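Serine hydroxymethyltransferase
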Amino acid sequence: MSTSPAPLQTLSNDAGWHDFFDADARRLGADVVALIDLDREREKRSLNMIASASYAPLGLRQIEGTHLVNRAPMGLPGRRSVANCEELDAIEMLAIERAKAIFGSEYVNVQALSSTIANVAALRAILPADGARLLTFDELAGGHVSHGALRHITGAGREVVSFGVTATGALDLDQARDLARKTRPHVLLAGPSSYPREMDFAALKTIADEVDALLFTDIAHVSGLIAAGLHANPVPFSDVSTTSTQKTLCGPRNGAFVFAKERFGAAIDAAVFPGLQGPAASNMIAARAVQMEMIARPAFAQLMREIVANAKAFGAGLEDGGIGLYTGGTDSHMIMAYTGESWTQPQLVAGLAAYGILGNAMRAPGTAGEPRTAFRFGSVALTIRGLSETEAAVLGREVADILRAGPEASVDPARLRRLKDLAAAHPIPSFVD
Ligand SMILES: *Cc1c(COP(=O)(O)O)cnc(C)c1O
């Protein structure tokens, strides 16, 4: 489908250095910009249902591209080791104060460069250096690799045990309590990455308290739903919470908020900088300050409600088409479909991409806890593009048909046309660079 890029003007080899400092992106890097343009066109033609995907508003992307990319303010607001940070301090304080107010937190750090990094730093700050014990939500059941997985640094040199879900897909709180009593963890860490239901964080708090463990809630996927009041907010009763800036928070990728009780603040600040990172990325922090203002508005809550309604409608469409869902449904933007074992994971990714549909091939527990092949869908990106509930249900039905046809079926041209039309009918807002 790809069209070759139109010839673009480039800088000649005898251009002086001031020429390339003044040239815009198209003149400076025509070949790369052409690829960026092609990627944008591909995105427009696609139905992006990657659960972590959203479209950052134009204004936030503009702020990330300001001259602030050049700034490197070491330290925290009011305590920098370089001069001329007055405005950067004011910006970072806006991000912090707004985040505190929205999520009801005593302390916020906005410098971590991703939610994964935030988890590494926060765990380092609150766990003992030796002999640390963690109780986490199982990765297969829907936890995240940065919650102490063996192949991740958060699991290195730590004793990690995990609880999962019951046969109906509810958090197995009995198992969590048993493991907590048996292993006396320092920290109970949980948050949904591929678990589509609202997590009962309050119940986990009770279990953590019973064994004097700290509670660390990872709300990377659901922080937008929490800000909108659709899911209960665990931040006020958690010792630490982290979230990324994309996903349901709808900001640009690569950022994080760390919320914590005040008493952990200094240790977390130090674990982020200088423990893991260099100076703060002021351009990204500025975008976070504006993002926090954006998500406090009624229009954002309305978007979140539509996102959840679309996820439910899409899931219902899948079920109408004979596809089972992990946990039997969704309370969020995320839908986990059991695809049937005839598909391999690469076949799933390619088979759906052949129709322009994007998501993640993964696994989820079956009713006996056994790993089953699953595909994770999300409704954030398409809802921003204006997908209606009716269209979401129809789309679920189309996907069910594709999944049931199996990996050997050839692409149905009529279905392909319908799905291309659906993508074309929903342009991405302000999708320019
Ligand atoms: C996506 C995710 C992360 C990682 O976020 P990044 O900002 O992409 O590093 C951490 N925790 C959970 C639960 C996630 O789903």
